[in-house]
Design brief:
The protein is an alpha/beta fold and 430 residues long. It has two domains: 19-50 and 312-426, Aspartate Aminotransferase, domain 1 (Alpha-Beta Complex), CATH 3.90.1150.10; 65-309, Type I PLP-dependent aspartate aminotransferase-like (Major domain) (Aspartate Aminotransferase, domain 2, 3-Layer(aba) Sandwich). The chain is 40% helix and 17% strand. The protein has 15 helices and 18 strands. A seven-stranded mixed beta sheet has the order 4-10-9-8-7-5-6, with helices on both faces. Strands 13, 14, 15, 17 and 18 form a five-stranded antiparallel beta sheet that branches. The protein is globular and about 75 Å long. Bound molecules: 4'-deoxy-4'-aminopyridoxal-5'-phosphate.
Length: 430
């Protein structure tokens, strides 16, 4: 990005987003924490919500609340329109042509489990292989462990390169006709690594495998075009993309969704019910048993509209600039910082996980780092970030993680850097 390269002091000249205006839309960003202005750098855990989303939620309960897909009354029709409107908007947001390919779930975790317990039980057998990468969140690992255990299948792990990228050559070496499923993250929630999904899909399809992409970290931060990615399933969470908690989605190819058995049984997902057997509603209702999370799905639409208005290309450019700035500043100010993930921001999202070397051999515990930063109003994530095996690989049981979004600024990166100086002073490193 020219604006970054050209600045002698490495400070980004400006963001392609109007960050000042954006910040006004997020009420929580004007609060103080521990006597300091809030610096929210925990967006990979969950994002903050703009007023537009909060108001959509309140408006729904004040003016529109009713059950969907059932009653004949005016409110029910309106609630159904709004609920289905989010489905159509999400389909468009990720480049899907048919809204029926969107199934609402609670979150990414449930979307992945839905595939494991339906498609997986149907298609994975003894001796089959499932490939995941070494950087998976537990959500895209544990369901496959359970499935492999239940079906007598084997898990294989696509390794990282030494620079923490997805090792495409090694992945290619793992492929064979026994591989039935490839389940890979689109963006690592620890390393920030962006994976080459279209290449992965193409190679996996050559051996007849189905491809599931964990888009929990990518969908909020970069343009998603399902057709370009070439995958078969894509999972995401609304709460990481300015939307409410309690809503996620699974996108799946229509023919796959239609051929899969139901996940949960109950109301709304049936066509005919007799005493001893039933038939299923068409997709997506087949996978949406019971009264869904209507209000949050409706409010999710406002989040998608908000992101759409910003433009996902622009969101990505803003975060690339901030990430590049953060990597440069943190390395310059803290040579004792171990930063994980690729250097090249073309292959890295706005996630910077790190450990701070302590006195002697070890590192300062990430919880201590997080606590001292919190004292200064700076919110980061600490711990294993639901990626325990990856941390083993990194040689650290846990790490501290700063992650950016549309409302973050270079000043906040500077605050993080200053905060780390305080950590080092307290730990006698300075
Ligand atoms: N995958 C990745 C890469 C994630 O970062 C997360 C959330 N930390 C998840 C899956 C799970 O998301 P959720 O908890 O919303 O299901």
């Amino acid at each position: 990005m020219a604006i970054l390269e050209s600045v002698g002091t490495v400070r980004p000249g400006h963001s392609p987003l109007d960050v000042t205006a954006i910040r006004h839309d997020f009420p929580i960003l004007s609060r103080e924490v521990n006597g300091h202005p809030l610096v929210y750098l925990d967006n990979a855990a969950t994002s903050q919500k703009p007023r537009q989303v909060i108001e959509a939620l309140v408006r729904y309960y004040e003016e529109q609340n009713a059950g969907v897909h059932r009653s004949a009354h005016t409110l029910a029709a309106r609630a159904t329109d709004l609920y289905e409107g989010t489905r159509a908007r999400l389909a468009e947001f990720i480049g899907a042509t048919d809204p029926r390919e969107i199934v609402f779930t609670r979150n990414t975790t449930e979307a992945i489990n839905l595939v494991a317990y339906t498609w997986g039980q149907q298609h994975i057998g003894k001796g089959d292989e499932i490939i995941v990468s070494q950087m998976e969140h537990h959500s895209n690992l544990v369901p496959w462990q359970l499935l492999a255990e239940a079906r007598g299948a084997h898990l294989r792990f696509a390794p990282l390169t030494p620079t923490h990228r997805f090792d495409l050559a090694a992945f290619r070496g793992l492929l064979n006709p026994r591989v039935k499923l490839v389940a890979v993250t689109h963006m690592s929630n620890v390393l920030g690594t962006i994976t080459p999904v279209s290449e992965i899909s193409r190679l996996a399809h050559e051996v007849g495998a189905v491809v599931l992409i964990d888009g929990a970290q990518s969908a909020p931060h970069m343009p998603i075009d399902i057709k370009h990615l070439g995958c078969d399933f894509f999972a995401l969470s609304a709460h990481k993309m300015l939307g409410p908690t309690g809503v996620g989605a699974l996108w799946g190819r229509l023919e796959l969704l239609e051929s899969m058995p139901p996940f949960l049984g109950g109301g709304s997902m049936i066509s005919e019910v007799q005493w001893t057997k039933s038939t299923w509603a068409p997709v997506p209702q087949k996978f949406e048993a019971g009264v869904p999370n209507i209000a949050d799905v409706v409010a999710f639409s406002a989040a998608l509209e908000y992101l759409g208005n910003l433009g996902m290309d622009t969101v990505r450019e803003h975060e690339k600039g901030l990430t590049k700035y953060a990597l440069t500043v943190l390395r310059r100010d803290h040579p004792d910082l171990i930063i994980y993930g690729p250097n090249d921001v073309e292959w890295r999202g706005g996630i910077v996980a790190f450990n701070l070397r302590g006195r002697g051999e070890g590192t300062i515990h990430s919880h201590d780092v997080g606590q001292i930063l919190d004292d200064q109003g700076i919110a980061i994530r600490t711990g294993h970030h639901c990626c325990k095996p990856l941390h083993t690989l990194l040689g650290a049981p846990e790490s501290a993680r700063a992650s950016f979004y549309v409302y973050n600024t270079p000043d906040e990166v500077d605050a993080l850097s200053r905060g780390l100086h305080v950590v080092k002073r307290i730990f006698g490193r300075r």
